[in-house]
Design brief:
The complex is a heterodimer of chains A (410) and B (118).
Chain A: H1 6-28, H2 31-52, H3 58-78, H4 83-93, H5 104-114, H6 121-132, H7 137-143, H8 148-164, H9 177-196, H10 203-223, H11 228-241, H12 267-282, H13 288-301, H14 310-323, H15 327-341, H16 343-351, H17 359-371, H18 375-388, H19 392-403
Helix pairs in contact in A: 1-2, 1-3, 1-5, 2-3, 5-6, 6-8, 6-9, 7-8, 9-10, 9-11, 10-11, 11-12, 11-13, 12-13, 13-14, 14-15, 15-16, 16-17, 17-18, 18-19
Chain B: E1 2-10, H1 19-38, E2 42-47, E3 55-58, E4 65-68, E5 77-86, H2 89-103, E6 107-111
Antiparallel strand pairs in B: 1-5, 1-6, 2-5, 3-4
Helix pairs in contact in B: 1-2
Classes of the chains: A mainly alpha (410), B alpha+beta (118).
């Protein structure tokens, strides 16, 4: 076999470095050492593989090489064959060979460590991307529109706390699991959202984040197949992802769900998402992600916007409100009510919400007022929404909506 | 095993409670302390007199100065603390959960540095 391209090695890195780091952390109990050793192993790979070709099991090769490098590093640091190094060597000898061995559980442990509630929420996201997603610090910084040094600082601080406070490296016990799993799912969801939210950031890095979030959700699904909210999260991400190409037009402007070319929706992702929604519902333990996925599934059932079963969507929002009683959920429910009962009913619902500082609240009000023909009030609401919008794409979208003619239907 | 300090802060906290509630807090903390001891996690613990009884001794200048009052210029000072022994942060946080219920105040959990190996 001829040599391999560096791009292929990059791909192995993205796919397998998380696995390797997770295993090394379990063996050595030291995140920095694990990261450095895995990095070392990939450096060796970029030297060897271009000539020698891929080994039969690249992931296993990386783990074995990284582990030997880590032992070398420890020996160099301690300057002798100390007990600590020998103990680790003994443990490794009693392990099954990583080639083909089940290393998957290590990643589950690691994601619970990365998403521990004792860590700052933004650090949870960054650590998960760094350690499980194999993203470089600079890539994470660009995705979150912050400087590389600030991101590096955030990662260093989180890793130091994990070590100093002895944050455990294991799957939480049953009593703590629901809450802790929530934190993990939220992190994966945030990673996806960060990639999905239209923004002036680097488009390539952003779609990468979506891909990474889906990869993590798939991993969780494989590791915890019976958790309905894990199924719900994966379904939600797949159904959202299915609309990615349809939600912006050629010049990058946002296209509303009702105006999207549904022929562009990815039917495979929809099929997989809908199957998962049903699989989740059968377990009869509803949760916020499952219900949001169910709402997305109802949308994806309709071949054009007019076919949408708004009655079912309002019902699902009722359920979601009992599970997650937040004003943002109530706002989304009101949008569905507008379709079912007309804009004036929805507008009454908005009056009770305390979302004055949320641009989509004003955008929704503007849209409803416009549909009722109250152009003056609509214009004011658009103005507020535009002044609060988080990025250029959304701002441009709202400016376009602001100037189109009224469509009185209420 | 890691040792953790669990600190409780006096703000406008316990002292403002009616007397029967203060008695309840003392009783609950006694029960909690016993639970820590029975589990073998207790290292040390106790309540402190108010911060106004504190004295600061400082040699950051040329010579030692002695000043009346607490060091930190804040309204909230440590009112008491426990030092516990726990397997990891999760276990420490479980104990802290019981502690905050017993003392009816926020509990800060902070790890001790490892002692150098002997």
């Amino acid at each position: 076999m001829p040599g391999v391209e560096l791009a292929a090695i990059d791909e192995v890195f993205r796919g397998d470095s998380g696995k390797a780091i997770a295993t090394l952390i379990r063996l050595f109990g030291d995140i920095d050492l694990a990261e450095e050793a895995v990095q070392d192993a990939f450096v060796v790979a970029t030297e060897k593989w271009p000539d020698e070709g891929l080994p039969p099991n690249p992931a296993g090769w990386i783990v074995t090489t990284a582990r030997n490098r880590a032992i070398d590093r420890l020996r160099r640091e301690s300057g002798r064959e100390d007990r600590h190094v020998r103990a680790i060597e003994l443990q490794i000898q009693s392990e099954p060979d990583p080639v083909g061995g089940p290393v998957i559980d290590d990643r589950l442990r690691l994601i619970f460590t990365c998403c521990h509630p004792a860590l700052d929420p933004s650090a949870r996201v960054a650590l998960t991307l760094r350690l499980l997603g194999g993203l470089q610090t600079g890539e994470i910084a660009r995705a979150f529109l912050t400087s590389e040094s600030a991101m590096a600082q955030r990662l260093v601080r989180a890793k130091r706390k994990i070590r100093a406070a002895n944050i455990p490296y294991r799957v939480p016990n049953d009593a703590d699991l629901p809450e802790r799993l929530d934190s993990v799912l939220t992190v994966v969801y945030l990673i996806y959202n960060e990639g999905y939210a239209a923004s002036s950031g680097d488009e390539l890095v952003r779609s990468d984040l979506c891909g990474e979030a889906i990869r993590l959700a798939r991993l969780l699904r494989a590791l915890m197949p019976d958790e309905p909210e894990v199924i719900g999260l994966l379904a939600l991400l797949l159904l959202t992802e299915s609309r990615r190409t349809a939600r912006t037009d050629d010049d990058g402007s946002l296209v509303m769900l009702s105006d999207q070319d549904r022929g562009l929706w990815d039917r495979d992702l929809i099929g997989e998402g809908q199957t998962l929604v049903r699989a989740g519902l059968r377990r009869n333990r509803p949760g916020p992600f499952q219900v949001q996925a169910a709402i997305a599934a109802v949308h994806s059932d309709a071949h054009d916007a007019g076919e949408t079963d708004w009655g079912q969507i309002v019902q699902l929002y009722d359920t979601l409100l009992t599970l997650a009683p937040t004003p943002v959920v109530a706002l989304n429910r009101a949008v569905a009510v507008a379709e079912l009962e007309g804009p004036s009913q929805a507008l009454t619902l908005l009056d009770d919400l305390e979302l004055d500082r949320y641009h989509l609240y004003h955008a929704t009000r503007a849209e409803l007022l416009r549909r009722m023909g109250d152009m003056e009030a609509a214009d004011l609401a658009y103005e507020r929404a535009i002044s609060m919008a988080g990025n250029d794409v959304e701002r441009r979208f709202l400016e376009q909506r602001r100037v189109i003619a009224p469509t009185q239907d209420g | 095993m890691t040792q953790y300090m669990m600190s409780v802060y006096d703000g406008e906290g316990v002292q403002d409670l009616p007397e029967d509630q203060i008695a309840q807090v003392y009783a609950d903390v006694d029960v909690f302390n016993q639970e820590l001891r029975d589990a073998g996690k207790w290292v040390f613990g106790g309540g402190l007199h108010p911060a106004e009884t504190a004295t600061v001794v400082d040699m950051s200048g040329e010579e030692i100065t002695i000043t009346d009052g607490p060091y930190a210029e804040t309204k909230e000072h440590i009112g008491g603390f426990w030092i516990i022994e726990a397997a990891d942060l999760d276990e420490a946080l479980d104990w802290a959960g019981k502690a905050t219920r017993a003392c009816q105040g926020a509990v800060e959990v902070r790890p001790f540095q490892d002692e150098p190996e002997t």
